């Protein structure tokens, strides 16, 4: 099963994990979150992330989901990419995470693709009465 690490500014990853667990209705044994603060030493954060990757990777690979591209969390994730083994996607949102979890038993390449489409399709302009 593909491991997923949510690498975000402060407590965003924890909130996303909590919401995803509520939606999925099961423990998320293949998911971890790494909170990053602007006060953190990026080298130490990278080392913590490497330890998380090692603990979550059962041979299926790990997907890093990070919040805003260009921020410290995405810069950390970028240093961890190993094509085909550790992949990263920026712009994490709840639909992206839920989609990645739904397909986490598929190959890493599929999980990456499904996460991206889930994130994109989860952003909609809402009109009054559109959800009735």
Automatic annotation (TrEMBL):
<keyword id="KW-0598">Phosphotransferase system</keyword>
<dbReference type="GO" id="GO:0005737">
    <property type="term" value="C:cytoplasm"/>
</dbReference>
<dbReference type="InterPro" id="IPR051471">
    <property type="entry name" value="Bacterial_PTS_sugar_comp"/>
</dbReference>
<keyword id="KW-0813">Transport</keyword>
<keyword id="KW-0808">Transferase</keyword>
<keyword id="KW-0762">Sugar transport</keyword>
<dbReference type="InterPro" id="IPR033887">
    <property type="entry name" value="PTS_IIA_man"/>
</dbReference>
<keyword id="KW-0963">Cytoplasm</keyword>
<keyword id="KW-0418">Kinase</keyword>
<dbReference type="InterPro" id="IPR036662">
    <property type="entry name" value="PTS_EIIA_man-typ_sf"/>
</dbReference>
<dbReference type="GO" id="GO:0016301">
    <property type="term" value="F:kinase activity"/>
</dbReference>
<feature type="domain" description="PTS EIIA type-4">
    <location>
        <begin position="1"/>
        <end position="123"/>
    </location>
</feature>
<protein>
    <submittedName>
        <fullName>PTS system, ascorbate-specific IIA component</fullName>
    </submittedName>
</protein>
<dbReference type="Pfam" id="PF03610">
    <property type="entry name" value="EIIA-man"/>
</dbReference>
<dbReference type="GO" id="GO:0009401">
    <property type="term" value="P:phosphoenolpyruvate-dependent sugar phosphotransferase system"/>
</dbReference>
<dbReference type="GO" id="GO:0016020">
    <property type="term" value="C:membrane"/>
</dbReference>
<dbReference type="InterPro" id="IPR004701">
    <property type="entry name" value="PTS_EIIA_man-typ"/>
</dbReference>
